[in-house]
Amino acid sequence: MTTTPAPQHSHQPFAQPAPAAPAGPPTWRANEQVMGMPISLALRGREAGTEAGHQAWREAVHELRWADQVFSTWKADSWISRLDRREVTLAECPAEVADVLDLGERARVSTGGRFDVQRFGRLDPTGVVKGWAVERAVRPLLELADTDLCLSAGGDMVCRVRDPQRPGWRIGIEDPADPSRVKVVLTLRDGALATSGLSRRGAHLVDPRTGAVPASLGSVTVVAESLTWADIDATAGFVADAAAPAWLTERARRGVVIWRDGTVEPYGC
Description:
Layout: E1 27-34, E2 37-45, H1 51-71, H2 79-84, H3 95-110, E3 118-119, E4 122-123, H4 126-137, H5 139-142, E5 147-153, E6 156-160, E7 169-175, E8 178-188, E9 190-197, E10 217-224, H6 227-239, H7 244-250, E11 254-259, E12 264-267
Helix pairs in contact: 1-4, 3-4, 4-6, 6-7
């Protein structure tokens, strides 16, 4: 696949760095390592730091650990690993396995094959599971009254702001050429955000149809209502390579693409 030069743009990203906000309620933060990635939570409002907030966090982590035990492709005894080795049938697995695989098939069809849970001849629903699991894990946190939240899993996140007077969450998108730097800041109040790229894990994203590694892009960030579909579309958008902004806009997504040369391009404004 040949590299397409990144276009030059003079317009501004759809979300600018938020202005300094007035002092608000304190933020309570927590962190865990689950599913091989950092999981972090920020709570702001009535239940930040309370026992109710702590309990909701414990329930969220428990849900993610359960998902890891069922779906991890690194654990030999996980249901998905055993299914891949044909040691068990789909009917013998927890019902959620069939749900995830059905979701993966719908994603394959809707993305024109840019997304697929079959990788190099092996069953790997990882691209579905992370967003799907976080959306399940966030449920007890969403039940906290008058409490804003930002639940992040490896940089993909679900955000809510309950009080219209409180500022949105400011999300830094890292520079693919230097992950220690923030390239652009987006503001999110109510929704989900996912980013796909190669800077953290190398050439792990390939076009399932051709095996080619995208050559034009540094990263693709998608903002959507559902983290499951934001994650799927960020992956498929990255695989779309130079066509990513147009393809994602056609799917009624919005977000930002960072080209390999560092150019920042918003789409779906």
